[in-house]
Amino acid sequence: MKITGCKTNHMVNPLGFDMTKPLISYVIKEAEGKTQALLRISENEDMSDPIFETHLTHESNKVNFGAPIGVKPRTRYYWNALGEAYVSETNWFETAKMDEPWQAKWISSYYSGAQYPIFSKQIEFSDVKSARLYICGLGQYEAYIGKEKVTEDFLPPYRNGSIKELQYQTCDVTEAVKNGESLEVWFGSGAIGGFANEKPSYGITWKLIAELHVTHTDGSEDVVGTDGSWKVAMRKAGDAAVDAGEHPNDAPVNAALCKEALPPLKARLLQ
User: Fold this and answer.
1) So what's the pLDDT on residue 259?
2) 2-95 belongs to which CATH class?
3) Average pLDDT of the residues in 53-75
4) I want to staple 3 with a disulfide (CB 3.0 to 4.6 A). Which of 67, 88, 215, 220 is the partner?
């Protein structure tokens, strides 16, 4: 008996999705008839002190089980399944902020016109165990710590149907925070300028909200949230939209050069 194809909510090791009702699934191979497996869920990677375990009896080779556990915000859970003389690999899923209040404020830029903001905050941490960035922007954006882009995603915050409900992203930035000295968020147009011939979805002002949670090896935590202490500089581009891409003009596109040409000011705190 082998247990493979392990997923949570149809994803392999999902980070920062809606996990209020985790659906555990896996595939059983090399077994005939009814089989049994012990499903365990723990907050510890070594699977010690499980918070939930149950014996499952399977009549087919595909398993889908809704785990009746109460999950906590910003928490990683590990799980595995134990069959006859076989243990699956250890899998995990990690919750996002859920209904937890934000320790950050929406910030914006004093600038307007055909220029695009770079919001920045100096950071420096030691003894970092893990770090997560929770972020949402109005206008397409890319976040960097030092020179490292924090995610492989493109065009966040994606296409949102209503200003009343916006997607935010959860990024594992542990290695970047260990080496980086600044957090920067570069903006383009996106829904700020409208898609194709549509009217702008979110007005004409770029906005950003973000929280950086850093957990240290001693268990303590630091939180850096967007507020009025953040800096903002502007870069110029001929056009930057989701449908046509970005067309730089002769203005420098390097962050340091942009800041030298257009000195950074404090970000505007939105009430």
Assistant:
1) 37
2) mainly beta
3) 84
4) 88
Domain range summary for the chain, segments of one domain joined by +:
2-95, 107-269
Q: State pTM to two decimals.
A: 0.83
pLDDT in tens, 136-146: 988 788 899 98
Place of tokens 């549509």: 198
Q: Under 8 Å CB-to-CB from 220, ≥6 apart: which residues?
A: none
Q: Is 187 exposed, middle or buried (0-12, 13-18, 19+ CB in 10 A)?
A: buried
Residue 188, phi then psi, degrees to nearest 5: -120, -155
Residue 255: its H or E element: helix 255-261
Query: Kind of pairing, strands 86-87 and 245-247?
Result: unpaired
End-to-end CA distance of the chain: 59
Q: Residue 123's CB: how many other CB atoms inside 10 A?
A: 18
Q: Residue 51: which residues within 8 A CB-CB, separation 6 or more?
A: 41, 42, 43, 69, 77
The tens digit of pLDDT for each residue in 101-123 reads 999 999 987 655 567 888 999 99
Mean pLDDT of the chain: 80
